[in-house]
Amino acid sequence: MRKIFGPICLIVLLGLSVNAIANDVRLISVTGLVEKSFQPDIVRLNVTVWGKGESAKKAQANNQAGYEILKKSLDSFKVKKEDAQTSNYELNPEYVYDQKTNKNNISGYNANQGLVITLRKIEDAGPFLDSITTNSKSMTGGVNVNSLGFDLDKRVDEERALLADAVRAAEAQAEILARAAKVKLKGIYRLSPRGANPPIPTYGGAIMKSAAMRANDATQLMSGEVKVSGEVAADYIVE
């Protein structure tokens, strides 16, 4: 069983409207939002392997050299194949403007591969970041970390489980409003879930310190807690 940290936060966003619509249906509209806090159990990273060169082939070769650094770390930390996925690959020319000819001339090429990586042990996040950083002064290739976020592996399941609590919260609030307005709830007219908020990356920045600069200063990250929510919008018929 997953441990829940912190009290259950029950938030109900209210919007009272007694609407006269088709067939003179009057409604009370409410929004129910329920949140729970959990300890994260996975880390997701967005990284870019890049390479530069005077030719497309050279740029690709330098990109591959950076990929080998990443691949070595993936193997070292036993990251499964399904937990490392290429999200995009780009190979583009670089241009420099020639004032004499008034033309843009190709000066080189850039090869970039974006990947999404999932770490199943959150304590590996800092050491993994350190492992993909080299002390090379070469500006022809490497690995950049674009973002890092702590999350739950079963986030979708937790969000679905909270929907029932959100419905009950919305109904309870509708009852309060109905009593205050001196009307009675007749039944549900419309009920729909609202989109859940994705986890917010907690670490960003494409430029990383070199391994030589932090040989005695390993990267440490604070995972904090992950909030998961279930939210519904409900319209109740009143009489």
In terms of structural class, how would the helical and strand content be classed?
A: alpha+beta
Strand order of the largest sheet: 4-5-3-6-8
Largest sheet: 5 strands, antiparallel
Strand content: 35-45%
Shape: elongated
Which descriptors would you attach to this protein?
239 residues; SIMPL domain-containing protein; Alpha-Beta Plaits; four-stranded antiparallel sheet; five-stranded antiparallel sheet; 26kDa_periplasmic_antigen
Q: Strands, helices and their partners?
A:
Elements: E1 9-14, E2 26-38, E3 42-53, H1 56-76, E4 84-98, E5 103-119, H2 125-131, E6 141-151, H3 155-180, E7 185-193, E8 203-204, E9 226-238
Antiparallel strand pairs: 1-2, 2-9, 3-5, 3-6, 4-5, 6-8, 7-9
Overview of the molecule:
The chain has 239 residues and is α+β, with helices and mostly antiparallel strands. It folds into 2 domains: 85 residues, no CATH class; 110 residues, 2-Layer Sandwich (Alpha-Beta Plaits), CATH 3.30.70. The chain is built from 3 helices and 9 strands. The strands form 2 sheets. The protein has a 5-stranded antiparallel β-sheet with strand order 4-5-3-6-8, covered by helices on one side. It has a 4-stranded antiparallel β-sheet with strand order 1-2-9-7. A hairpin with a 4-residue loop joins strand 4 and strand 5. The protein is elongated, with a radius of gyration of 26 Å. The protein starts with 8 loop residues before the first strand and ends with a strand. The N terminus is likely disordered. This is SIMPL domain-containing protein. It comes from Bacteriovorax antarcticus.
